[in-house]
Each structure stands twice: as C-alpha cells, then as structure tokens.
Amino acid sequence: RVAILDFGSQYTRLITRRLRDLGAFGLVYGPGATAKEIGGPDLKGVILSGGPNSVMEDGAPDLDPAILALGVPILGICYGQQLLARNLGGVIHRSSRREYGKAMIRVLDPESLLFRGLETELQVWMSHGDHVEQAPAGFAITSHTRGVPVAAMEDRARRIYCIQFHPEVTHTQHGSKVLMNFLHVCGMKLDWNTGQFIEEKTRAIRKQVGTGRVVLGLSGGVDSSVAAVLLHKAIGKQLTCVFVDTGVMRKDEMAQVQEAFAPYDMTVKWVDARQAFLGALEGVSDPEQKRKIIGRTFIEVFDREAGQVQADFLAQGTLYPDVIESSGVGGAVLVKSHHNVGGLPDVMKLKLVEPLRELFKDEVRRAGLALGLPEDMVWRHPFPGPGLAVRIPGCVTAERVAILQNADAIFIEELKASGWYRNTSQCFAVLLPVQTVGIMGDERTYENMCALRAVTSEDFMTADWARLPHELLEKVAQRIVNEVKGINRVVFDITSKPPATIEYE
Ligand code: XMP
C-alpha cells in the first residue's frame, strides 16, 4: 500500500487512479493523517499531493514529522514538495505570477532513480504559485525549468523525492513512468488487481461489520449491485437488500433485477411501492417538487423496511467520484437536487459501510464481472433516483409512465441490437405531453411526442449528443409510433450539456 496524503489538489484522485493502473494499491488519507494512522507493515511508500494553499500561509496544512521517520520512500508533488522543502530547511519563494499549464523541464541528474529511462527534456504540467528556490541540505536538484530552479529534488539517502510538476495528469509526458519509478524505489510488487481488491475488501467488511446486520438499498444500478454482491460474498446472510419498485422505473425493471440476482442466495426484500409513489405524485408538475416527493417517499418506504431488518449498518454503493463531488468544496449553484450521497435520513443513525468508496466506475464494473454479475447489469447506463418522473415534464400518471416505459424499452432494445448501447453513456426516451397532429391509415391522430436522448460523457458533468446513425433512429421512431399507443411523433435531441442538462427536469 502507498499512503496518499491529500492536501486538497483537484488531481489527488488521479494519483490513486494512476497507481492502480500500474498495479499498486494507493489509499487516500486526510492532510492531518499521522504516522500512526498511515503506518503498518503493508506501508511501502507515501505520496504527498498538491494543494491549493501556500505553505507560507498561517494555518496551511502541515505534515506529521513522524511520517519522515517511518523509513519508507516519500514522494512530494507540488504543494508536497514545497512542504517538505520548508520543513527540512529549504527556501520557498512566492511567485508574483502563477505558473499554470505546460512547461519543459530539463533533467539534470542521470543518476536520479525517479527519472530513470526518460529523456532529458520532458514536457510536464505545472500548476503552482510558490516554488522551491533553494533545496534543503542533503538534497540534489534533479531538474529545473526556465522559470523554476528546483523542478525536482531528491535526498537519496533518506529516499525523499520531490517534484513541482504533476505526474498524475495526462498532459505530463511519461508521468506514469515517473510514478512507476517511484513505486520501484518503494519496492512495490505491482500485482494489485481486481481479485485482490475483492479479497482485501471482503476481509475489511468482515472486520468492520463483525456479527452486525447490514441493510442495503438495491436499485439495480451498477454501484448498488456490485456493492450488494461484494457484501454478500463477505457476510452472506447478515446482509439484507431492499429493492423498492417506485413505479417510475424502466419497463420490467424489478423482474430484470430479480433475474440477475437469482443465482445468488441473497436476502432481498422486493417492495412494490408503486401506489405510494404515484399517489404522492398526483397532480404535481414542478420538477423540484417531484424530486422531493420521490426522495421523501423513498425514505419512508426504505426506513420502514430497514427498520424490520434491525440493521446496525447501512451499506451504500458510493464511488470515489461521489465522495469528491459531495465534499462540498466551493459554492456550486444548485441546479438539481441529486440525492445519491447523504440522501438518507439522520433518523436511521446507522453506521455506514461503503465498500466501493475508493473505486472509479470502470473498476467497479471490473469488480462486478469478477463477482459474477451479468455483463448486461455491469454495463447499464445510469438511471436517476426520481426515474421516469423527470422524463415526463408535467404531471406523472400511471398511463404516461406506461407509454414512456414502452417507448424507452424499444429504444434501448434497438441500441443494444445495433451495438450502440456500449458506445454511449446514457440513452433514454422522454415523453413530452404535447399533443401534435398525425395521420395513421386514414385516421387523424392527436397524440404525445417522444424525444430520444442519447449522450456520451466522461463524468456526466458535461455531455455531447451521440451521433446515432439515421437508419437506427428511423427504425426506433417507426417502431415507437407503430407499437406504442399514445405517441405519434418522435424527435431526436441534439443539445449538448451545457447548455441543456441530460435529463429533462
Ligand atoms: P443532469 O440532468 O443534471 O444529469 O445533466 C446528470 C446525471 O445525473 C443523473 N441525475 C440524477 N440522479 N437523482 C439521481 O440519482 C436525481 O435527481 C438526478 N437528476 C439527474 C442523470 O441521469 C445523469 O446521469
């Protein structure tokens, strides 16, 4: 294990990501973590991340000096380098101008293990205000740039390595090689893989839960499904999953999830709460109001079911990007009240089990496959908690939901048949309750419109519309109008996010 101390850089998660891609397991700790907290026989190295502060400011996060005495190699990146330089007697300069973006470094020392096997000129990514002007005693300066006298330095005897640039971002040429070199210095085996993650997590879950009972809200999405099978592997019957059919889910959702979980001997409560949700939504057309009602109803139903389980722990399929997004840094404007993290009521007062907290989405998918979940389940597009309610602008009725479910099922079926499902990030149909005139046979029709939404996206914060082939769109449109009573016109949405959002409400 490599311990990564997070001093607040936006790139910290990329460090863990790169390490894992290289086969090394990295665990992120807060900036105030002590040597005692991070130490242990499995600790092979420490990485100090970048951060937004200046080490010259009062109150800037500092490092427990005992970490330097742990005897494992240390890599300081950006703020991490400045912190080590300051604490060990170097000189830091506050630059009047921030250096941000690409820079060329010159490697000065062919003996440096960190730059082993690399060119002497490297393009790197810089993002800093302060820089190290003078290295502390015992440190060799191993690279510089035109503007920065110490772009990298190292104390070989103590195995402390420092770099001003960010090796974790892809803009840094051979950044992964620099990290790999550091891992070699640490003597890491580089054999971390999904199987090992599963074994380690299984042990950790057993240790945390002991003989307690765990309840998990199973939605059928990738995250909660993988969390469920992982917990099931670890604690078997101590886990109870609760699946709530909200009535605004995809067509035959509950049956599909039941089928996927049939091979596991897992305790799942299948709760049909369609009436409760549709009843509470009756006559409500405001988007935020709809979200709140669904959130509240879900909590009521889930609370009741979980109460019967008498659980000690609540398990959630929280992923690493959710952890970062919900940490509340900065004052982002509320556009939609998403409720993936922290959305459950305090009254539950259960301790949390979050076995996927360190993982990125693709790693969760790999874990899901390794745990035996079907491909279809693991590659599902995300589905919002408020479900089809935010895909039916205006009031939600059972009839409208049924129309939309049928149209959506056709779209998804054709996407899968044509191979486009895996090449897109999120696709769905939307029911626009706007009547337009059509003609079918000799009959005039006056029915709803259906919009098809298909996007590609890395993180769902921004998205582009997917360039689906015209033939595919034509087939979907034809099938929907012919097979779904209540829709007589299909349109394709070609708006990106921003300015539109992915969902319609
Ligand atoms: P937007 O519409 O904001 O969606 O571009 C971005 C991603 O978030 C999902 N989404 C939600 N998920 N509760 C959820 O659990 C919500 O209220 C919600 N609203 C949007 C959306 O499906 C997309 O993946």
TrEMBL record:
<comment type="subunit">
    <text>Homodimer.</text>
</comment>
<feature type="domain" description="GMPS ATP-PPase">
    <location>
        <begin position="192"/>
        <end position="380"/>
    </location>
</feature>
<comment type="function">
    <text>Catalyzes the synthesis of GMP from XMP.</text>
</comment>
<dbReference type="InterPro" id="IPR022310">
    <property type="entry name" value="NAD/GMP_synthase"/>
</dbReference>
<dbReference type="GO" id="GO:0005829">
    <property type="term" value="C:cytosol"/>
</dbReference>
<feature type="binding site">
    <location>
        <begin position="219"/>
        <end position="225"/>
    </location>
    <ligand>
        <name>ATP</name>
    </ligand>
</feature>
<feature type="active site">
    <location>
        <position position="168"/>
    </location>
</feature>
<keyword id="KW-0658">Purine biosynthesis</keyword>
<dbReference type="InterPro" id="IPR022955">
    <property type="entry name" value="GMP_synthase"/>
</dbReference>
<dbReference type="Pfam" id="PF00117">
    <property type="entry name" value="GATase"/>
</dbReference>
<keyword id="KW-0547">Nucleotide-binding</keyword>
<dbReference type="InterPro" id="IPR001674">
    <property type="entry name" value="GMP_synth_C"/>
</dbReference>
<dbReference type="InterPro" id="IPR017926">
    <property type="entry name" value="GATASE"/>
</dbReference>
<dbReference type="InterPro" id="IPR004739">
    <property type="entry name" value="GMP_synth_GATase"/>
</dbReference>
<dbReference type="Pfam" id="PF00958">
    <property type="entry name" value="GMP_synt_C"/>
</dbReference>
<dbReference type="GO" id="GO:0005524">
    <property type="term" value="F:ATP binding"/>
</dbReference>
<dbReference type="InterPro" id="IPR025777">
    <property type="entry name" value="GMPS_ATP_PPase_dom"/>
</dbReference>
<protein>
    <recommendedName>
        <fullName>GMP synthase [glutamine-hydrolyzing]</fullName>
        <ecNumber>6.3.5.2</ecNumber>
    </recommendedName>
</protein>
<feature type="active site" description="Nucleophile">
    <location>
        <position position="78"/>
    </location>
</feature>
<feature type="active site">
    <location>
        <position position="166"/>
    </location>
</feature>
<dbReference type="GO" id="GO:0003921">
    <property type="term" value="F:GMP synthase activity"/>
</dbReference>
<dbReference type="InterPro" id="IPR014729">
    <property type="entry name" value="Rossmann-like_a/b/a_fold"/>
</dbReference>
<dbReference type="InterPro" id="IPR029062">
    <property type="entry name" value="Class_I_gatase-like"/>
</dbReference>
<keyword id="KW-0332">GMP biosynthesis</keyword>
<comment type="pathway">
    <text>Purine metabolism; GMP biosynthesis; GMP from XMP (L-Gln route): step 1/1.</text>
</comment>
<keyword id="KW-0067">ATP-binding</keyword>
<dbReference type="Pfam" id="PF02540">
    <property type="entry name" value="NAD_synthase"/>
</dbReference>
<keyword id="KW-0436">Ligase</keyword>
<keyword id="KW-0315">Glutamine amidotransferase</keyword>
